[in-house]
C-alpha cells in the first residue's frame, strides 16, 4: 500500500483521489455539460488573449512587408556625398536568384582610372569601381528594387558592358559618368522617368528624383550605410530549381584603388 501510494504521488495523484477532470467547452468536465456562463467566460478570455496577439502579428507582417524581399536579388541604389572623397553613385546587388543557387552580395560603380585635367577635355579611360566596406558604410542607401532573374541577368550584362576589360570603359564626366551608369541599371529594374539632365552630376539629387518618380516601383530606404547594412538579414543559399535561363556569372573586377572622380 505504501509503495502504491508513493508511486501515485510521483504521478501527481494521492491514493483515493479522483482522476483530474478533463474540460471541454462542448461537454464540460468528464463529459458533463458546463453551465452556459462558464462557457461564455472561457470563450471571452480566448478572444481577449488572441486578438491582441493576431494584431501584433499582422503589424509585424506589415512592417517587414515594406522591406525588400531577400528571397530574390535586390538592387539598392546608393549615393556618397562630399567628405573624404567626391560625390559618387553606385548600386549593390544582394540576395538569392529565384532559380536558386549561391547568394549574391556585390557592389558596382563606374569611375575614371585617373583624376587629371583631361577629365574636363572629353573622354578618358574608365573602369568599374568596387567600393570597400568602410566606403559603403559612409554612404547613403536611397532606394531598392527587387529584380526578376531576367533583370538580374541584364544587370550583369550591363556591368560587363561598362567594364574596360570586357566592354567599353570610356568615361566622360558629361555623358558617361557614375550617374549615367546607375541610370542604366535603374532602367533595367523597370523604373521610369529617368531623364534629369540637370542632375546627372548630382548623385543624391538624381536618385531621390528617380525614387519620387517611381513611388509604386521602389522601396525607399533613405538610411545611412552603416545602419542599413546592420539591418540586413543573413544570406542563405537555396537549392537550384528549374529555370529557363541561368544568369551569367558576375564579371571579376579587382578592388578599387582610386577614389571615384567628382560627379560635379
Write up what this structure looks like:
With 264 residues, the chain is of the alpha+beta class. The chain folds into two domains: 35-65; 74-231, no CATH class. It has seven helices and nine strands, in the order αββαββββαβαβααβα. A hairpin with a 7-residue loop joins strand 3 (74-80) and strand 4. The radius of gyration is 30 Å and the shape is globular. The N and C termini lie far apart (96 Å). The relative contact order is 0.17.
Order of helices and strands: HEEHEEEEHEHEHHEH
Query: SS-based structural class?
Result: alpha+beta
Helix content: 25-40%
User: Unreliable stretches, pLDDT < 50, 5 or more residues?
Assistant: 25-31, 50-70, 241-248, 250-259
> Nearest-angstrom radius of gyration?
30 Å
Task: List the domain count as a whole number.
Answer: 2
Q: Round the mean pLDDT to the nearest integer and report it.
A: 78
Q: Biggest sheet: strands, sense, closure?
A: 7 strands, antiparallel
Report strand order across the widest sheet. Answer: 8-6-5-4-3-7-9
Proportion of strand residues = 15-25%
Count of helical segments? Answer: 7
What is the terminal separation in angstroms?
Answer: 96 Å
Please tally the β strands and state the result.
9
| Morphology call | globular
Amino acid at each position: 500500500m505504501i509503495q502504491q501510494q508513493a508511486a501515485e504521488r510521483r504521478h501527481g495523484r494521492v491514493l483515493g483521489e479522483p482522476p483530474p477532470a478533463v474540460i471541454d467547452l462542448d461537454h464540460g468536465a468528464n463529459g458533463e455539460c458546463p453551465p452556459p456562463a462558464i462557457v461564455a467566460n472561457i470563450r471571452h478570455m480566448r478572444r481577449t488573449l488572441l486578438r491582441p496577439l493576431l494584431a501584433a502579428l499582422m503589424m509585424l507582417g506589415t512592417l517587414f512587408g515594406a522591406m525588400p524581399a531577400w528571397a530574390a536579388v535586390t538592387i539598392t541604389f546608393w549615393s556618397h556625398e562630399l567628405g573624404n572623397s567626391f560625390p559618387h553613385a553606385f548600386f549593390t546587388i544582394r540576395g538569392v536568384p529565384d532559380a536558386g543557387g549561391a547568394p549574391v552580395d556585390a557592389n558596382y560603380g563606374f569611375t575614371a582610372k585617373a583624376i587629371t585635367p583631361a577629365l574636363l577635355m572629353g573622354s578618358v579611360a574608365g573602369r568599374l569601381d568596387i567600393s570597400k566596406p568602410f566606403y559603403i558604410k559612409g554612404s547613403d542607401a536611397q532606394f531598392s528594387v527587387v529584380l526578376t532573374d531576367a533583370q538580374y541577368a541584364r544587370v550583369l550584362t550591363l556591368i560587363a558592358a561598362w567594364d574596360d576589360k570586357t566592354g567599353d570603359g570610356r568615361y566622360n564626366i558629361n555623358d558617361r559618368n557614375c550617374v549615367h551608369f546607375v541610370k542604366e541599371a535603374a532602367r533595367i529594374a523597370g523604373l521610369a522617368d529617368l531623364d534629369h539632365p540637370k542632375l546627372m552630376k548630382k548623385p543624391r539629387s538624381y536618385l531621390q528624383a528617380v525614387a519620387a518618380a517611381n513611388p509604386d516601383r521602389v522601396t525607399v530606404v533613405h538610411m545611412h550605410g552603416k545602419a542599413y547594412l546592420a539591418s540586413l538579414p543573413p544570406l542563405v543559399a537555396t537549392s537550384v530549381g528549374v529555370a529557363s535561363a541561368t544568369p551569367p556569372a558576375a564579371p571579376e573586377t579587382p578592388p578599387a584603388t582610386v577614389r571615384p572622380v567628382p560627379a560635379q
